[in-house]
Structures are given as C-alpha cells and as structure tokens.
Design brief:
- By secondary structure, the chain is of the alpha/beta class.
- It has a single domain (26-326), classed as TIM Barrel.
- The chain has eleven helices and twelve strands.
- It has helices at residues 15-21, 57-70, 97-108, 144-161, 175-185, 206-212, 232-244, 258-268, 278-289, 295-308, 319-326, and strands spanning 31-38, 44-45, 53-55, 74-80, 113-118, 132-134, 140-142, 165-168, 194-199, 248-252, 272-276, 313-316.
- The strands form two sheets. Strands 1, 2, 3, 4, 5, 8, 9, 10, 11 and 12 form a ten-stranded mixed beta sheet that branches. A two-stranded antiparallel ribbon has the order 6-7.
- α3 (97-108) runs parallel beside α4 and α4 crosses α5.
- The longest helix has 18 residues, at 144-161.
- The chain is globular.
- The two termini are 40 Å apart.
- The structure holds ligand PBG.
Length: 327
C-alpha cells in the first residue's frame, strides 16, 4: 500500500525507533586487527597508514591487551623477518618472528584470537607468494605445486606456536587441501582454516606492501590473484575452498567488492570474513587528515556496510578506533 497509507518515515522518527528496526549492527567482537611484527625493538611508522606501526613482539603483546580491553575479537599477524630467502624459510622457522609473537601473545592474553596470516611473500627475497620457477619459454612464474608443501609446513609451525586460526592468503590452487591434510597429520585436526578465497589482484594493497616490505621484485600477482572483473569466479573458487576444508571464507578487498561478499555468502552459507585493506584505510585517513570527511562517521558507516553485504567478520586497521567508538 503506497503513500499515504505507508509512510516510511514513521520508523525513522527517533533514535530509539531507528535502533529498534536497524537490521545490521556493528560489534567489536566481529572485528580483527591486523598487525605487523618485526625483529626490532623500536616502532616503525608506516607512511601511508597513520596510526599503524611495525611492532616488536613485546609491543604486539601490548596491542593484544588493548584489543582485549576494547572487546576487539583478535589480531591477524603478519611477520617481517630480517632475513629473507628464495623459499621464505622464516615463514615456518620455529623461532620465526610470527611464531615468537604468537607464543608471547597466547601466553599473556589467551582470550584474544590470534589469526596467523599464511603466505610466503613477506618472507621471500623476491616478494612473491610462493617459490619461483622458470618455464621452458623463459618465463618466471610462481610454481603452484612446489609451493604447497612450504605453505603446509608454515601452517603446522603456526599451529605448534599456538595460533587459533591459520589464514592462507597465497592464492595457490589446492592450498586449503594441502594445509588441512598437513594440520591433520601433525595432530591439529581442530585447527580452523580461514581461506582468503576471493583475493583480488588489487591496487588497494599498496600501503600494505610498504608495511610488510613485500612488493614483488619483478612482475605482479595477477598470475595467481583474481581479476577484479570476476564475480562468478570468486564464487566458484570459494566453493572449491569449502570442499577442500575451509572453515571460513574471505573476500578481499572489502569496499570495492561488496557484491562479491554478498554472492559468496549466499552461495556458501559458511562464515564470511571481509578484509578492509590498507588502501581503503589510507584513503579514509588521508581524507580525514585533510578535513574532507568525518573519520568516525565514515568508518562506522563503512564497517556497517561491509557487514550488511554479508560479512560476519571484518578485518580492519580501524578495529581499535571503531571498538572505542562503540563502547
Ligand atoms: C599477503 C597479503 C597481502 C595482504 C594481506 N596478505 C598483500 C598482497 O597480496 O600483496 C594485503 C592486506 C592489505 O592491503 O591491507 N599475501
């Protein structure tokens, strides 16, 4: 029944009424904060990401405590080792910086969820997400199948250190199955896998690569990350990851891919995480610093929109700020 019988404004009249009929709410308990851990004591600011620094293991523990205080569900850990090599061996080293950070956080703040990002690009000297091969035609590419055992080995090292979740972001085919099998064989059948199943080859990762020192030395990641034009492919790859044993799916970046979040959620019905990435964060921070937008309002609206699109969990560099505004 249209106007005047139906008046949509009736339920918009007061904050209380708007709250009563609000479909999507934001809760700090659905947010994860990504952090960068390096092997140095001093904090190292990241140029394009005001408020985000490279942290020591001790500062990572302090960050975990702060998350607990604010009700942020947990952290996503990225390691920046001093020594990089062709295989990325610090990714699975028992005393690698991420493994040390996981142990330290779980020892002091056991209630905070620790997600271990599982990729080789921060650990390889060439900056790619797997090991390289040169084809007969003289082309250098990432060797999918040869990279799988290294990823599986990294997952086991992260599990041994005490991670609550491993999150493979490498975009190799068959990675979830390889990781699941290795975890099961190593005695970690209960360890959940959160797969970056729809990870697009995105320009929005620019600031992260400065933060993690992981810009590919040559070429780009379009040979393994997804083409930004593809939605069907994202759904297809997500369903493959579920079949391989993924417990949570991820769409990344978030804001330019809200339709993909929606589609993956509808098609899979498994918990979906969206990664509000470094470039999305940098744009908000830059616009806010210039006085062009209201940072608090924009962040809360953005995170609500990502949740409305179907994300159960949001990884965001705004997590602590958002949580403090929601308190
Ligand atoms: C590593 C990885 C990347 C991000 C998360 N994990 C970078 C990349 O693929 O180049 C990006 C996160 C961000 O931009 O905030 N594979």
């Amino acid at each position: 029944m249209p106007f005047p019988v139906t008046r949509m404004r009736r339920l918009r009249a007061t904050p209380a009424l708007r709250g009563l009929v609000r479909e999507t709410t934001l809760d700090a308990g659905d947010l994860l904060l990504p952090i960068f851990v390096h092997e140095h004591e001093e904090r190292l600011p990241i140029g394009a990401m005001p408020g985000v620094d490279r942290l020591s293991v001790a500062d990572a523990v302090a960050e975990a405590k702060e998350c607990e205080r604010l009700g942020v569900a947990g952290l996503v850990l990225f390691g920046i080792p001093d020594a990089k090599d062709a295989e990325g061996s610090q990714a699975w080293a028992d005393d690698g910086v991420v493994q040390r950070a996981i142990r330290a956080i779980k020892a002091e703040v056991p209630g905070v969820i620790v997600v271990a990002d599982l990729c080789l690009c921060e650990y390889t000297d060439h900056g790619h997400c797997g090991i390289l091969q040169t084809t007969a035609a003289g082309l250098t590419t990432v060797d999918n199948d040869a990279s799988l055992p290294l990823l599986a080995r990294t997952a086991v090292a992260q599990a041994r250190a005490g991670a609550d979740l491993v999150a493979p972001s490498d975009m190799m085919d068959g990675h979830v199955a390889a990781i699941r099998t290795a975890l099961d064989q190593a005695g970690f059948p209960e360890m959940p896998v959160m797969s970056y199943s729809s990870k697009f080859a995105s320009a929005f990762y620019g600031p992260f690569r400065e933060a993690a020192d992981s810009t590919p030395a040559s070429g780009d990641r379009r040979g393994y990350q997804m083409d930004p034009g593809n939605g069907d492919e994202a759904v297809r790859e997500s369903l493959i990851d579920v079949e391989e044993g993924a417990d949570i799916l991820m769409v990344k970046p978030a804001l330019p891919y809200l339709d993909v979040i929606w589609r993956v959620k509808q098609a899979s019905r498994v918990p979906v995480c969206a990664y509000n990435v470094s470039g999305e964060y940098a744009m908000v921070k830059a616009a806010a610093a210039a006085g062009f937008i209201d940072e608090r309002a924009v962040v809360l609206e953005t995170l609500t929109a990502i949740r409305r699109a179907g994300a159960d969990i949001v990884i965001t560099y705004h997590a602590k700020d958002a949580a403090s505004w929601l308190l």
